[in-house]
Amino acid sequence: MSSLKTAPALQACRECGAGAPADAHFCPQCTRILPLGRPVDYFQFLGLPRKLGVEAADLERRFRELSRQFHPDYFYNASAQERRASLERASYLNDAYRTLKQPAGRVEYLLQIEGLAAVNPQEASKQVPPELLQEVFALNEELDEIRELRSSGAPADEVRARLTRARVPIEQKRVEHAARLEALSQQWDALAETAPAAERQAVLTALRDRMLERSYINNLLAGIERELEK
Q: Is the pLDDT score of 173 beyond 70?
């Protein structure tokens, strides 16, 4: 795993045979659009550093500019190879934009390309993060009491009020967690390009743990919402 800058790999233009940087979209010699081949990561594809602090306006601008460059209308009379390249790059661009647009998506993708994939939602629902054990225990007890209350024929307003109160500490936990995730994201951005691998690894591991907590907190809130809908 490494985020340190290295000499860019080259790709060959199939039209003129010239070499182009791996993150180039068009050949610097003949200006033809390059086939996607083995794509670079989403950050590099959009010309961004591998950092989590992405300005929404800047991301949108880059997306729009590349969307215009790759638009199939510009390649209507081009060769079949160029038309295919424009479609491939446009599709990859859309995937990159959707992934990097949301902060959580950026963290999950960063963990993936740094070789430390986040726990998927199914696994997260089965693993209770130690930091949340007390809240999970208290909430499950409260939900059991609320279900018994509903079964006994208690007024709907009373049940709803209990559920609303039960949601408060979990919502607070979500807010606290979001703040910790943001702090870790800033820490990664400060270390990403210059820090030793061990320091970066420690931050990535912490980010993965926070994403597990995020998944579990969301599952808890979703459980309360399901009870509210009954």
A: yes
